[in-house]
Amino acid sequence: MLDHTAALLALTLSAGTPLVFAALGELVTEKSGVVNLGVEGMMLVGAIAAFATVASGGSLWAGVAAGAVAGMGMALIFAVLALSLQANQYASGLALSIFGIGLSAFVGKAWLGTAIQGFQPVSLPGLSAIPLLGPVLFKQTPMVYLAFLLFAAISWLLYRSKAGLVLRAVGESPESAHAIGYAVIRIRYMATLFGGACCGVAGAYLALAYTPMWVENMTAGAGWIALALTVFATWRPLRVLLGAYLFGGVTILQFHAQGLGVAIPSQLLSMLPYLATIVVLVLISRNSQMIRLHAPASLGKPFLGGG
Which residues sit opposite 140 in a β-bridge? Predict the structure, then answer.
């Protein structure tokens, strides 16, 4: 029973990791006052870039780097449209997502159904032998550990560093930040590119660790869940981490129920992660004061000043 529980929890961490990468990246972007709805598209482009790199003979970490660069490239397109040309952020993000879905399907035709040798779990000496916690936390792929490091780094950056204070100031009042000499547009560019890189790494994780085989539209809506997760977490990193693994657990329960032969239509079980997303958003929306309290004040609003 203990081994079974440990296996389920370990799979939960594995399933929630792409959401951690994508949602933390979007969190940093939104903290600067920018909403990028193109997460799904950036993840898919990052996934095919990572997979193509490894399938063409590159190393796994070269694939991760390629995914990050591809995600940044997609985010740059969005940033030029939304920040430099002042296009509507929501429309630009949706267009980016649709573009990324189509681009990844087109580029991925050559590798459709191809499998590769992806990241393998790494046991940390001594720690992996701890009952229950060992197999769950210390027998994961390197990218799961990377997600924890990213969480720690972003938490420190946002709330313990001057750079994080400036980023949050830009998201709260870009006019005030500009008045005291900060380049608002440049800071928003950097936050947007960072978010794109994280989404690209999320896609790389899917293609190189979670299911190391190229399948068209392999994110299956994970980008949209990551966007909802940012709101669910009320723009706080710890809640993003916990929420990502909550949704990861719902996903694993879906597969577990199917494996046990539960007499529920598979289509209904497949709906569970998305149904959970809708329920959570409905519950949160009932307390609009909490959302307004934690949401960056200038979220989604263009800045017309210089910088």
Answer: 122
Q: Where are the alpha helices (DSSP H) in the chain?
A: 2-31, 39-55, 60-79, 89-107, 133-137, 142-160, 162-172, 174-179, 184-205, 222-232, 237-259, 266-270, 272-285, 288-294
Phi, psi of 183 (to 5 degrees): -80, 95
72: nearest Cα among 224, 198, 221: 198
Q: Tell me how far the alpha carbon of residue 203 is from its chain's centroid.
A: 8
How many C-beta neighbours within 10 Å does residue 59 have? 10
- From the list 75, 90, 26, the residue with the least C-alpha distance to 230 is 26
Nearest Cα neighbor of 187 from 196, 174, 197 is 174
Query: Which of 199, 164, 184, 197 lies closest to 302, judged by CA?
Result: 184
Amino acid code (one letter) for 125: P
Per-residue DSSP letters for 20-60? Answer: HHHHHHHHHHHHTT-----HHHHHHHHHHHHHHHHHTT--H
Does the model's pTM come out above 0.90? yes
Confidence label for 295 from pLDDT (cuts 50, 70 and 90): confident
Rounded distance between C-alpha atoms, residue 172 and residue 188, angstroms: 12
Tokens of 201: 């790494």
- Predicted local distance difference test score (pLDDT) of residue 177: 94
Cα gap 75→148, rounded to integer Å? 23
pLDDT digit string, tens, across residues 18-42: 999 999 999 999 999 999 999 999 9
Quote the CA–CA distance of 217 and 251 in Å, as a whole number: 17
> Which residue has 């994080």 as its token pair?
164
DSSP type of residue 209: I
**215 CB-contact burial (10 Å; exposed 0-12 / middle 13-18 / buried 19+):** middle
